[in-house]
Every structure is written in structure tokens, then in C-alpha cells.
Amino acid sequence: MRQNKAKDILNYFIKNTPRSISCKELAGVFGVSERQIKNYIAQINKETSPQLLIKQGLLREYRLCEGYKKYLHLFNYTEQTPKVRVNTIIAKLLLARNSIDLFDLADEMFISRATLDADLVRVRQFIEPFDLMLQTNRDEIALLGSEKDKRKLTSHMISNEQYADFMGSDKLSYLDNSYQVDRLKQGLVEIFDECHFIYNDYSLNNIVLHLVITIDRLQKNCTIEKSTPSTNISDNEREVTERVANFLSENYGITFSDIELTNLSIFLSCNLSTVDYTLISPCGLQECMDPNTGTLVSKILQKLREYYYLDNFDQVFVTRFTLHIDNLIKRIKSGFTFRNPLAAEIKHSYPLIYDIAVFVADMIREATGSMICPDEIAFIALHIGTLLESQQYGQKKITALYIYSDYHHLYKYNIEKIQKRCNDLINIKYSISTHDYQSTHPDAELLISESVGVAVDAIIVSPLITENELRKITDAANTVKNAAGKSQFERNLLYLFRENIFFNNLHCKDEFEVIHKIVQRLRDEGYVASEFEEDVVHREKISSTCFHNGLSMPHSISNNVTHSFISIASFPKGQMWGKETVYLTILIGIAYNDRKIFRAVFDTLIEIFADPSMAKEISQCSSYDDTVKKITCLIEHSETEN
Predict the structure, then answer these.
(1) Under CATH, what is the fold of the domain 497-641?
(2) Which of 66, 232, 515, 629 has the maximum number of C-beta atoms within 10 A of its C-beta?
(3) Where does 405-527 show beta strands of DSSP type E?
(4) Torsion angles phi and psi, residue 459, rounded to 5
């Protein structure tokens, strides 16, 4: 982090000690106003407090204090970045009951008025999605917008790690001990349990955060002016709302107006449930939710079958997924959001699962007319991930052949143990005696033998198979499976990635110009229809396809793709992609009839480029041939590691 002028001013004093120096002289040397010089001096003294490192004399000139050298180690101030300053300004605006004097704000932050004006431009851009705006009146500024939108902004800032500095100052802290968060959480748990409401850690933390912000705003007499759009509230939900409101009133000295009470009841109804998914029947499920939700979920599941080849949706998954979508739609209609602290991690660690969740979110957008935020997309991804894990999608079994030396059929016990241990990995196609194998030599991907020398490359096991031998079989099966997958990807790469759609060192202002230039070539070469660009841009706007720093993967599974392809564009010096820098863009277009290969291609690319440095390394390849060779080497290296 770069030092600000305070460090340079301090060095100037040290160089000229013991001479006294006027503000006018310092302003001339450093090219700033005398007011700013005084701010920098105050900044230095704040760092060394309670000792004043620079003192003012009778003639209003400044000099270093006696014995200043022993205090120099206390000065370690580094200039705040624009991002940190923006977060600080937003916090101050949210906490202020009245407008803020701009000159006082600049002095307090030790910045010039010009720097503050530049930061306010960034603040305006940041708060715009929350339907908030800044109002300046001469030298004062205030945050304008509804109280509900201010609370949304506060929740967003607190619940996102990247805005951790928003909570940095004790004066700005919301989750300090005065709110007794643990006591608040315990009180809520007791109420919810007594009212027979079902919740999880995510929903409970979301409710606690919402209520802490509500307490803070009501204590400052900041109340919601109009109620949230109405939704059906049950008698149970009204009861739990009244109990929560009474608990908060008694413990935090706040009063809920009718509008605040209605807002609280709708919020709780969107985050709690009385339905136990393990007990409810399909008929009971239909009775407790909006009938349109069931229709929408059926369409979503059908599309997942068609586009991603997901299937075997068991009743437990369907029930949980349906209840989640029903509550999600309630939140959308009511203007609430379910915060997910793992949203960024889910997106970057499980790109394919997150991509499927984006697909689902877009279907919900089409049905409701509302965009789904990244936090909510991440929750959908959790449900999809659970499905994939339980069904072991993508875990294609390899074929194995068991060669035995028969003795009272003991080999059957070995086969039973292998199948029990490796059921998700190996399919023992058949077992065969040593004599029969030597005469027929049937084919299989993995050979397991009780006799040495019968088959080349066979895994040798004893008649009573050991734990160590089972591990060897598992390791060998994984090696075969990974090699087969990489080989298939290599064939797909050569089939999909052609020299005429390779781009080197493109120069573009943003990600959308990158997409436009690539698609323009694809259109000219006959790979896509004119509507394809709209498909890709639409997907990009829902959620950035920059899954790892250094790599972006815009894509579309669409009827607008005539021939499936992979187009690669390299940026040796980097290209801005939203707020990230990428060195490689891989645009994937899969024709509808080829959609079965999408998951394998997408997943393998993500695996190859899991290390961000790989994208930068490949971007240095200046030709199509070099790029193919480099990616092939990475595939082989990945095989060796596995």
C-alpha cells in the first residue's frame, strides 16, 4: 500500500530540524493547500498520540518535538485505498441522522476535498443498485432513499467479507457487544422452537443480522415509511412475529409501528418454515405452497434433464428444492434477500454446480420478472450440489475383469468386498478362471488377478483380499478413470478448438467487447446464428463467468449454435473482466445435439486452470499450435499428478 504525503512531510521536518517551518512553506513544497498541510500534521500526531510529534509554536510555525527520534517508530500510517474510503463514507452516511459537512468529512479522513469528490462518484455508483442516491446542498451531503433500502445496503456491507473495513472502526460497528448477539440468537431459538418453526444456521444468522440492523435503525428513530408488498401471513407467523417484537422491545427498548410489524412478519415468513421435508407427502407439499411454484419446479427439473442430463430426482430432493424455491419467490416478491456467506467460495470452488444454479435462477427470473442475486444463486447451488453428490453424477464406472484360481468359490468373497468398497467406481463385468482367461483374453479397463504372470498390468490380490490390496485397486481404478477422461477431453479439444477461432492479444475496453469480437468471427465462420451473442451476454450479466482470477469462460448451450466450438482469446498483458483481470477467455458454444459433452468439457477446463497462473502462462503462447501443445501438456501433467 502506498504511503501518503504525511510520510513525505515528516521526512521534510526531519531533514530541516531543528528549524521551524510554516504552513505556507510546506504548502509550496508539496503542492497542496495550507488546510491540507494542517490535516497531514494532525494525521501524523494522531498516529503518535498521546505524544505530539510535530508541535506548533507561538508564531504558528511547526517543528519536531524534543527527543522526536524515540517516537518515530510510532508513525506507521499508510494511505487508505479508494475502496476503504468509499466503505467508510457509506458507513458514516448510514449512521448520520442529518447531513454531513463535506469539509469536516475530508478533514476527518485526512484527504483533500478533490479526493473526497472523486470518492463520492464511486459512492454514487455503489449505492445505485440499492435505489439510493446522494444529495448535495452547498457543502453538505446526505443519503436519500427509503429506510428499507438503507437497511438492505447496511446488510450487504456487513455480510460481505470484501467490505470488512466497513466494520473496522468501533464507532461504526453494528455487531458489537451492546447488541448481545448471543443472547438475541438464544432468545430467537427459544421462540422458534416453542412455535414449532423450522430453521437452519443460515436462516437463523440471516434473521439475527436483519434484527440487529432493525434495532440499530429504530434506536436512531429511522423507521420504514411504507409496508412491504403484502403476502399471505398465517396465524402461526403472526404469533411468532408478535413474540419476537415483544422480546426486542423488552430487551432493546424499541417500539414497532404497525408498518414495522408487518415488515417483520413478512421477513420471518420468508426465512422460517413449519414444514418438515422428511415428513410431508407430495399432496401435503402442494397444499402448503403457491400452486405456481410446483409448475415452475417441474419445468426446471425437465430443463435440467434436457440440458445437463440430470435425472433420478428422488422425492426428498424434490421436496427440499420445491420448498426452497417457494420461499425464494416469497423473498423476491417481498424485496428481501437471503445472505450466503459462502457465495463467493461456492462459485469459485464448484463452477459447474454454480453454473447449473445460474441456469435455474434464470428460469426463475423468466417466471417472476426479477433478477436473482448471487447469494440466492449460491443457495440453489447447494441444493444442486447435494443432488450431484448423492447421485454421483459424472462418476462413470470403469469396467473390470476378475481372474481367479478357483478353490471352493472363495473368489466370490473377494469380488463382494471389491464391489462393496468400489461400487461407485468399478463395474466388475465378469469373473473368469485363470485357464479360461489364457484361452480367450477378454477385454476390460482394469484387470484384477489372484495369480502372478497371468495378465500384464493386472492388480495382484491374494485369495483372501487385504485392506492394502483394496486400496491399490481403488488407486488403479482412479488412475484409469482420470486417464480416460483426459483422453476424451483431448479429443474434444481438437474437435472443438480450431485455428480460425483463436485470438491473440485482443484489445478491448471490457468483457462485452471481448465477447462481441469473438462472436463476430464465429458468426462469419458459420458457427453461430446472429442471436448467439445475446445468449452469451445474457448469461454473463446474470453472474460473471470469471470463475478464477485470470480465466473467464463465457458460454451458452443454445439452438443458436450451428457447430459446437471452443474459442480461445489470450491477453498477455491482461484484460479487465468486470472487476477482475483475466489473461485467457475461453468461449464455449455447444449445439443442442452435443449438449451431453458440455459438463465434461466445462469441468475439465476448470480443473486444468484451477491454478490461476496457468491462464497467464498460456496467454504467452503466440500461436494456435503453441496453445494446443501447452494445454495438452497441462492435461498430461494433470494425469501424472492424479
Answers:
(1) Mannitol-specific EII; Chain A (3.40.930)
(2) 515
(3) 426-433, 446-449, 459-460, 502-504
(4) -85, 120
